[in-house]
Design brief:
Structural class: mainly beta
Helix content: under 10%
Oligomer: single chain
Number of domains: 2
Distance between the termini: 29 Å
Number of helices: 2
């Protein structure tokens, strides 16, 4: 099975879709995109992108047209373990097609005046240098330690950046400049190697654009900033926003998992003129909006896992009028007002996400739990696994960000996860204790005896000091553990706490 994850400044990393029908007519106004995969530049000029090439079929965006479809040359279907090398290698990654009807390509929609769309879709990525799912890849600047492997810092994560850039130059008539709202979304899935799992896989998408001249060069993507406000490193945030799934923190060998994040619409702020002037209007000269948009996909793959980007709407937006629709610009509006720019983008993206979700579930996909920011992971392991499969343990909790109850159901391997993400660190000052317990009675085994907890042990998956733990035993019987208290939680720690049931 596969592991899926939604990603988005809209919502999600999910995937799938078969393309049928005839290709929409190509317009003359579309910009020519540049795609950089692992440092290798793909363009039409160097023959690595082919306009109207394989896979350019019945795609369409919100206004029913595409005026640019660019196939990635050399890809083919290679989405099984045995096939992974039977496609094009770009840098240290194999790049393939999702299937024969959904081939690797870039889609551009650029009309005047209208809504801008950019999309990387029908594509799979898998590491060409990792040897097995649990091996350490050859040392390189992009091969960095994985954050967690069942509570232990691990190695063997291979990281790639895929940068898609396009200038939307169709706004050729005056009075087409305006406020520039933008939505980012990515739909896809992580497919584990063989019978392995997808723990530690991760996806991050960030967008940057420039609006003050045409042509122009967007600022570099801020790699550490996942906020729309001031970044912790003092640098400006990515003005088209950032989606960060965090690492997949729950698994199950061979299991498909999909990921979901909240939708965000970002009004892009023009901070690219290196002056103190900051505004949200796109005007590249003479009242026109011809922005250059750059999207940076950061993919972490543990070992030989595949990432599928099956129907990935990566960006939608454009200049708009905040007051009312004009003959040149749509009203900006919101996601609930039909006819407005934001409504049209949200409708298209949400429909795509729903299609992907439906197919993910049909393929046996399971929602993945991910760790973002400062986290606590409660991991349950029951032995023997055959007896523990399907057992549900009811937890009572208290404290900042973890209140108040949850159920932990163990899978066929006798394992289960609960992840608490984006928690507030509390080493200074202390916010208060976070408390976890399973009130009696425990579930009953097949032999009539009750399950019990003989071990509770916590580790810092990031090797960070400052988090403290207290385990309470039942009376004088130190083998029967009944509760866990975390008095303090260090910044950016992944506190992995394993409960052993027997």
């Amino acid at each position: 099975m596969r592991s899926l994850r939604w990603v988005g400044l809209l919502s999600s990393l999910l995937i799938v879709g078969v393309l049928v029908g005839l290709m929409a007519p190509l317009g003359a106004e579309a910009g020519t995109p540049t795609l950089v995969i692992d440092g290798v530049t793909l363009t039409v000029a160097n023959g690595r992108l082919q306009q109207a090439g394989p896979g350019c079929g019945s795609d369409n965006f919100i206004n029913g047209t595409i005026n640019g479809c660019y196939a990635i040359v050399g890809t083919n279907v290679a989405n099984t373990d045995a096939q992974r090398t039977n496609t094009v290698r770009i840098g240290n990654w194999y790049v393939g097609d999702v299937n024969s009807g959904n081939q690797a390509r870039v889609l551009i929609n650029d009309v005047s005046p209208g809504t801008e769309n950019i999309k990387l879709t029908g594509v799979t990525f898998t590491s060409a240098t990792n040897v097995t799912n649990n091996a350490t890849a050859p040392a390189s600047p992009t091969n960095i330690p994985c954050p967690i492997v069942n509570g232990v810092a691990g190695t063997g994560c291979h990281v790639v950046h895929i940068v898609l850039t396009n200038t939307f130059n169709a706004q050729s008539v005056p009075q087409t400049a305006g406020i520039f709202p933008w939505q980012i979304a990515a739909m896809g899935q992580f497919d584990p190697f063989g019978s392995e799992n997808v723990i530690n896989d991760k996806f991050r998408l960030a967008g940057q654009a420039c609006f003050n001249a045409s042509p122009c060069t967007p600022r570099a993507i801020n790699p550490t900033c996942d906020t729309l406000n001031t970044c912790s490193n003092g640098q400006p945030p990515n003005n088209l926003g950032t989606i960060n799934t965090g690492v997949i923190a729950s698994g199950g060998n061979g299991v498909t998992r999909y990921l979901q994040l909240p939708a965000v619409t970002q009004t892009a702020v023009n901070i690219d003129d290196n002056t103190s002037t900051v505004n949200d209007t796109c005007n590249t000269g003479s009242g026109r909006c011809q922005p250059t948009v750059k999207l940076d996909y950061e993919i972490w793959v543990k070992g030989l896992d595949f990432l599928f980007l099956t129907d990935s709407v990566s960006g939608c937006g454009g200049p708009c009028n905040p007051v009312k629709e004009t003959t040149k610009l749509l009203q900006c509006g919101d996601e609930i007002t039909p006819g407005t720019l934001i409504y049209k983008c949200a409708k298209e993206i949400n429909e795509g996400l729903q299609r992907d979700l439906d197919e993910a579930i049909a393929l046996g996909g399971v929602a993945a739990q991910t760790c973002e920011g400062t986290c606590i992971i409660i991991f349950g392991r029951g032995t023997p696994a055959g007896d523990a499969s399907g057992e549900t343990f009811h937890f009572t909790t208290s404290g900042d960000g973890v209140c108040c109850t949850f159920d932990l159901t163990l899978n066929s391997a006798g394992e289960g996860w609960k992840v608490f993400s984006n928690l507030t660190p509390d080493t200074n000052p202390v916010l208060g204790e976070r408390f976890f317990t399973i009130p009696p009675p425990y579930p009953t085994k097949n032999n009539g005896r009750l399950w019990s907890t003989d071990q509770i042990a916590c580790t810092s998956a990031e090797g960070i000091t400052g988090t403290t733990y207290e385990v309470e035993a039942e009376g004088n019987n130190n083998s029967n553990k009944i509760s866990l208290t975390i008095p303090t939680l260090a910044l950016n720690d992944i506190s992995f706490c394993e409960w052993h049931f027997h």
